[in-house]
Specification:
Layout (H helix, E strand, L loop, with lengths): L15 H32 L2 H28 L2 H22 L2 H6 L2 H33 L5 H51 L15 H14 L1 H16 L6 H8 L3 H25 L6 H21 L3 H29 L5 H11 L1 H18 L1 H22 L1 H4 L4
Length: 414
């Protein structure tokens, strides 16, 4: 196979194994996003309580964060393909449980309160699985793609994730309205099975250059020290953590769709996918025209714009304006995602990828669930609209503080 120059936008996807990884990840994330969309709607229908939506995020984030550092050690010590396939099988088992709890038998024998509790328990289980599965995808990229193509591969990876996310959100909303919760969950099971097929085709990826039988805690500390010493990486993931934590308005979209904008499950699907649709668009642009300079300054400006969009969404009572605000927020978030992902791939040595990606997941991925919980709590205390405005305003304050307190991030280039 002819190796394309690094500046070719299709350089990494010409690698067969990387294509299998992208396809398998796309189908996998699409299924998980459909499940997340469905669970948010399902819980709100069962409870009519915004705080109950926040508890979904808390149920998943507690095990995901608690196990993240240990998971990074396990990933670096393990054969990564096998670990990934086991995770998908366990996700499939969780989806099958949700199919059971959404069936007529359970509806006849359990109250809505108990069904919600069992849903939370399943989501808690998926948080355990995610602690191991999430970082493996990112860690495997460098084992498949040459270093010269890592920036290009990272952009494609983020685009795949975002495309799958918007597709899963939108399709999930349509399927809930069209075929119901139970049949939608069956569809999720089929997608997870298809993902397993593509990822099974990838060759084994043994541990990197790991020194003998390193003690778990020493291994974990090594990963933490690396992240905290790499100031650009630490600054980027910290900024993402606080921005998503306070700007997690997406968690309250079921309330906006049903009670404020009154657009039902179909509109819910559109709103849920709006931010990811914007991110896909910007990732395509960045694939063709990569950022060449001033990445740190652009990262801060993008996050500030994200906060402003969240405020507009919170104030809006017009569906088109709400959709547009989320769409633009996704475009700005896509810029920050690509910059952060590229820093992670370029700065991390192969033998530490599992640990570094796990630490990153603690900051970045889990911030979505923490943001979901924060949004549910603030909606309970302040009301839905004030809580979203508060979150967007706090995001702006975080950016302003970072601008003055972290000059190294503002001046960062790669």
């Amino acid at each position: 196979m002819k190796i394309l120059p690094p500046n070719n936008p299709f350089a990494s996807v010409r690698i067969v194994e990387y294509r299998d990884l992208l396809i398998g990840r796309f189908i996998f994330i699409m299924g998980l996003r459909m499940m997340a969309t469905l669970v948010g709607w399902w819980i709100y229908i069962l409870t009519n309580d915004p705080f109950a939506i926040g508890l979904i995020g808390l149920s998943e984030v507690i095990p995901a964060v608690s196990l993240a550092l240990y998971a990074g050690h396990v990933i670096d010590q393990s054969e990564k393909r096998t670990l990934l396939l086991r995770g998908i099988i366990l996700y499939l088992a969780a989806a099958v449980l949700l199919v059971f709890f959404s069936g007529n038998f359970v509806a006849r024998h359990l109250s809505n309160h108990w069904i919600a509790i069992y849903i939370y328990l399943v989501i808690f289980g998926t948080g355990i699985i995610r602690a191991f599965t999430g970082p493996v995808f990112s860690a495997m990229i460098a084992y498949i793609v040459p270093r010269d193509h890592l920036q290009n591969a990272t952009t494609w990876s983020q685009g795949t994730w975002l495309s799958a996310s918007v597709t899963g959100h939108a399709v999930g909303g349509f399927l809930i309205g069209g075929i119901g919760i139970n049949s939608t969950l069956v569809t999720v099971c089929c997608l997870l099975g298809a993902s397993f097929y593509f990822l099974f085709k990838i060759k084994s990826k043994p541990p990197g250059n790991v020194k003998g039988s390193v003690r778990t805690w020493e291994s974990v500390k090594e990963g933490l020290r690396f992240v905290f010493k790499t100031k650009e990486l630490l600054g980027a993931i910290s900024l993402d953590l606080f921005a998503v934590l306070f700007g997690g308005a997406v968690a309250l979209i079921p309330i906006y769709a049903r009670d404020i904008l009154k657009v039902g499950p179909q509109g819910f699907g559109f709103l849920n996918g709006a931010a990811d649709l914007g991110s896909i668009f910007i990732v395509i642009i960045l694939t063709l025209f990569p950022l060449r300079k001033n990445q740190g300054k652009k990262l801060l400006l993008a996050v500030a714009g994200f906060g402003l969009c969240i405020i507009v969404f919170g104030l809006s009572k017009i569906f088109v304006l709400s959709f547009g605000a989320l769409l633009i927020s996704g475009m700005l978030d896509g810029i920050s995602v690509v910059i952060r992902g590229t820093i992670s791939q370029l700065k991390t040595p192969d033998h530490m990828r599992g640990r570094v990606m796990s630490v990153t997941s603690m900051f970045v991925n889990s911030s979505n669930e923490l943001g979901q919980f924060e949004s549910g709590v603030m909606a309970k205390l302040l009301g839905t609209v004030p809580s979203v405005i508060f979150g967007g305003s706090m995001t702006l304050l975080v950016v302003i503080a970072t601008w003055f307190k972290a000059p190294s991030l503002r001046k960062m280039e790669y």
